[in-house]
Sequence to fold (426 residues):
Amino acid sequence: MALAKKSSPKPAPKSAAPAAAKRPVSSKDALEQKVFAALDAFQIETPSWGYADTGTRFGKFFQDAAAIDLNDKLADAGQVHRLTGACPSVAVHVLWDFKPGEDPKAVAALAAKHGVKIGAINPNLFQDQIYKYGSFANADPAARAAALEHTLYSIDLGKKLGSRIVSMWFADGVNYPGQASVRARKKRVEEGLIAAHKRLGPDQLLLIEYKPFEPAFYATDIADWGMSYLYSKKAGKKARVLVDTGHHYTAQNIEQIVAWLLDEGMLGGFHFNDRRYADDDLTLGSIDPYQAFRIFHEIHHHAFDNGGKYADIAYMIDQSHNDKSKIEATIQTVVTAQELYAKAALVDHKALAALQDKNAQLDAEELLKSAFFTDVRPALRAWRKSKGLPLDPLAAHRASGYEVAAGKERAARRKELGIVQGGSYA
Fold:
């Protein structure tokens, strides 16, 4: 009998090649990811007037490198954007930046030449003599008509320039009790804003700014965020509130105002600056960086509560660089804004919400402070490196010689043009 053939053992199946071990994400990597994501989405607009000579009611302090005309302003804005990668647009003031009859396409092309574009359009309803007693609020129909005509022209100019934001600030107000009817002035402002809103293009927004005092010292016609909110509601669906961080009383909780407006869907934009007393127009974060951080935190927190969707907010700078170098002060402000926005993005909102639900006030406060005190500068340098930007924008600006060259050229040009520097800011 033949023996059964012994079957040879089957070779063991080859095991799949081991998967490449995933490198654990370090806390440094996680921090950088959050910072990168925040900075990729953060842009802040610089103002044309921030590059020109400014001062106080008592006098101006001149700088050779200060911009003389719109070309200079756009060139300086282009320098800031090249170094920071965060400032692609420039807010303009219609009467200060546009010559009568000037072709908007030529202005847009000039901006593009310098690597930027025209941003918010700012009508000027305060410097002409006809506005002595107000613009939209003025009892004189001729003054109101002039204000509305200029506003409508500014809106149309914005359409031609592809500008999405029309930014309204009013110096309207009265200085003495009994001088005017507060209610009558309110109704006139409403009428003007409604008419302006009707002129907006499909993509344009009307941002309404407020200020508690100056130049009016008894009753300002748009004195606080509540008034701006009501005017925006009356104007129409494309009107929003503009928050200038300097336009508040010293003890006011600005981040609470921001939180309310976010929740109402009525926060349209910011004019960022800092102050010690009132509307000091100091560089952002120079006095109270924690306040700017808290404002940014409310924005990030609102996005977290809404599934990661951020509110549509226009971030703008509005400062008066009287004695700091114009370009250096702007770079300093942008870098500070980037740092504070990135710090606020580090807050663990899920953990914070759990602490808030338990009313663990000390731990919640410490969680917030932990993000504020985190040094994000290494992550910012890594972000800049990834974008091909200078690791230190201010040092790169100084090394470029741009400001020295601009100072020499503009000083000579002022002399040729016969520009006499003197007089007061007002």
The longest helix spans residues 141-161. The chain has 15 helices and twelve strands. The first strand starts at residue 46 and ends at 47.
